[in-house]
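Figure 3 (text version): C-alpha cells given as input.
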C-alpha cells in the first residue's frame, strides 16, 4: 500500500472544466480500489456537494509580503480523503481560471498560494505521503518549492510525479511577477523558469519533478517534436528518459451498453440486436428519416480548431454525398457553430445539430451511431473514441496521440482492427478514410466483426492505475 497525494486544480465532484477533473477523480478512486491510501488536494471554489468531516481554521500563510487567511475543509469521497483549500480572496469567484473577460490576472498568485498551502498542510502534519502526484501547470511550482522553501523539512525527500494533461496550457506569467516566488535570481534563467521572458509554471513542473507523464504513449513522443511541443519540446527532449505515456481509462460502469439507462435498448458484444433500435431512436430524436442502409456518423466535440472542425468544414459535403447522416453534439467557436447551422439548413434530411452540452444525449448518440468522427489536429488522449468502441460505434480518427494508441486500422484480410485512421491533416485524407469506412459498412458481416473487436477492448481505469503504481515505485527507487 502506498500513501499517495494527488494535487490538482480541479476534480469531480468539487469542480470541473474539462477532462482533467474527470481523470484526477477516476484515477484516485481506482488507486483506492487497489489498496492505496489516497489524499486528493485542490482548491474549494464555491458550494461544496459533500458533507465535510473536518475544518482546520483559521490558518495564515505569508509570502511575498502578503498575508492570507484561509481554512482547510476535510471530507471523504469514494474512499479518498479530500483536502480542500478554502481562501475566499483567491477561489470564491465565478470561474476556476477566469470568467467571460478571460483568465484572472492573478492566476499566478492564486495557484502559487494553493501550492504553498498544500505543502504547509503536510509540513504541519509531520507525516509525508510516499509520493506527490501533481497535475498540469497550476501545480507546476510544487516540486520546485518542495526542494527550495521546504528543503530542511522531511517532506522534501518525497518524490514527485508530474502529469501533463495538455501541453498547450502552460501557466506563463510576466517576468515582473517573479518576485512572488521568493526565489533567487538563478531561478529566473533559461535553464530554469524563464520562458521567453515569462515565468513558466509548467516548465517548473517539467524540470523539477522526478518523473513526468502524459496521457498516452504516442503523445509522450509527439510533445518532444516541434509540431506538438508548444515550445517546450527542448525541455521535454532533455528529460525524455523520465517521460512516460500512460493512457487514460474510462469508467466502464458509466459507459456500458449492457447497463446504460440512457439508451433506448441495452445490448452487448454477443447480442447486438439492441444497437439497431438505438439507431432508429437517435434518428427519430434528431428529426431524421429512419434508414438503416445509410450510416449515422456522430460527432460529440468542442467545436474548436484542435478538434479538426476545419477539416469537417472542408469535407462535409463530400461525406454526405456518399449517402450518410451526420449528427453533431457540442458547442464552441461561433464560426464553427454557424457552419454547422448552415450545413443543416442546406441538408436538413441528412444533418442534425445540437449546440449544447447534454450527457444523456451523448450516451444515446454513442449507442445509436454507426461511426464516430474524431479528426483532431492533436489529441493527447481522447475519451470519446474509447466510449465509441465500447458501444460498437466504429471510430474514424486522425492518427495522433491517444487516437493512434486506441484505434487499430481495419485489416480485412485478417479480420483484425476496430476502426479507420488517416495521417495527413488534410480534408482529402479524411474523405479517403471515410470512403474506406463507407465501403466496409456495406458488408454487414465484416462490420459486425469490426464492432465486436472494438467492444472487447479493455479501457478500464484499473490498467491505467496499475501503470501509475509501477511509476510511483520507480520514483521511490530514484529517491532511495
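Below: residues designed for each position.
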Amino acid at each position: 500500500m502506498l500513501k499517495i497525494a494527488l494535487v490538482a486544480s480541479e476534480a469531480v465532484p468539487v469542480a470541473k472544466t474539462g477532462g482533467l477533473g474527470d481523470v484526477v477523480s477516476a484515477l484516485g478512486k481506482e488507486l483506492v480500489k487497489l489498496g492505496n491510501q489516497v489524499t486528493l488536494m485542490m482548491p474549494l471554489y464555491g458550494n461544496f456537494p459533500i458533507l465535510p468531516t473536518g475544518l482546520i481554521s483559521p490558518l495564515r500563510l505569508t509570502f511575498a509580503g502578503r498575508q492570507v487567511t484561509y481554512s482547510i475543509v476535510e471530507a471523504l469521497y469514494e474512499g479518498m480523503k479530500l483536502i480542500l483549500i478554502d481562501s475566499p480572496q483567491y477561489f470564491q469567484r465565478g470561474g476556476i481560471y477566469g470568467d467571460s473577460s478571460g483568465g484572472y490576472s492573478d492566476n499566478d498568485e492564486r495557484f502559487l498560494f494553493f501550492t504553498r498551502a498544500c505543502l504547509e498542510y503536510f509540513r504541519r502534519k509531520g507525516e509525508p505521503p510516499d509520493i506527490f502526484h501533481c497535475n498540469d501547470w497550476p501545480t507546476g511550482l510544487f516540486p520546485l518549492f518542495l526542494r527550495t522553501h521546504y528543503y530542511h523539512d522531511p517532506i522534501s525527500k518525497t518524490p514527485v510525479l508530474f502529469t501533463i494533461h495538455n501541453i498547450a496550457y502552460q501557466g506563463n506569467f510576466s517576468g515582473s511577477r517573479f518576485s512572488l516566488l521568493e526565489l533567487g535570481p538563478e531561478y529566473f534563467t533559461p535553464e530554469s523558469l524563464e520562458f521567453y521572458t515569462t515565468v513558466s509554471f509548467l516548465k517548473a513542473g517539467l524540470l523539477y519533478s522526478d518523473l513526468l507523464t502524459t496521457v498516452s504513449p504516442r503523445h509522450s513522443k509527439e510533445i518532444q517534436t516541434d509540431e506538438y511541443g508548444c515550445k517546450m519540446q527542448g525541455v521535454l527532449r532533455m528529460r525524455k528518459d523520465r517521460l512516460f505515456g500512460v493512457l487514460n481509462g474510462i469508467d466502464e460502469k458509466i459507459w456500458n451498453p449492457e447497463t446504460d439507462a440512457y439508451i433506448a435498448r441495452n445490448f452487448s458484444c454477443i447480442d447486438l440486436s439492441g444497437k439497431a433500435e438505438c439507431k432508429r431512436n437517435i434518428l427519430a430524436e434528431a428529426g431524421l428519416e429512419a434508414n438503416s442502409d445509410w450510416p449515422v456518423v456522430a460527432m460529440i466535440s468542442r467545436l474548436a480548431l484542435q478538434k479538426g472542425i476545419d477539416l469537417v468544414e472542408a469535407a462535409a459535403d463530400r461525406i454526405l454525398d456518399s449517402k450518410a447522416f451526420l449528427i453533431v453534439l457540442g458547442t464552441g467557436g461561433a464560426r464553427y457553430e454557424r457552419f454547422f447551422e448552415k450545413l443543416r439548413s442546406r441538408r436538413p434530411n441528412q444533418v442534425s445539430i445540437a449546440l449544447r452540452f447534454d450527457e444523456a444525449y451523448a450516451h444515446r448518440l454513442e449507442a445509436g451511431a454507426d461511426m464516430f468522427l474524431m479528426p483532431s489536429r492533436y489529441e493527447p488522449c481522447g475519451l470519446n473514441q474509447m466510449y465509441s468502441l465500447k458501444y460498437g460505434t466504429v471510430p474514424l480518427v486522425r492518427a495522433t496521440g491517444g487516437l493512434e494508441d486506441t484505434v487499430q486500422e481495419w485489416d480485412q484480410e485478417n479480420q483484425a482492427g476496430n476502426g479507420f485512421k488517416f495521417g495527413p491533416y488534410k480534408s482529402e485524407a479524411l474523405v479517403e478514410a471515410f470512403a474506406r469506412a463507407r465501403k466496409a459498412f456495406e458488408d454487414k458481416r465484416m462490420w459486425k466483426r469490426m464492432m465486436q473487436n472494438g467492444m472487447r477492448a479493455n479501457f478500464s481505469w484499473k490498467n491505467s492505475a496499475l501503470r501509475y503504481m509501477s511509476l510511483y515505485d520507480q520514483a521511490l527507487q530514484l529517491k532511495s
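The mean pLDDT is 96.
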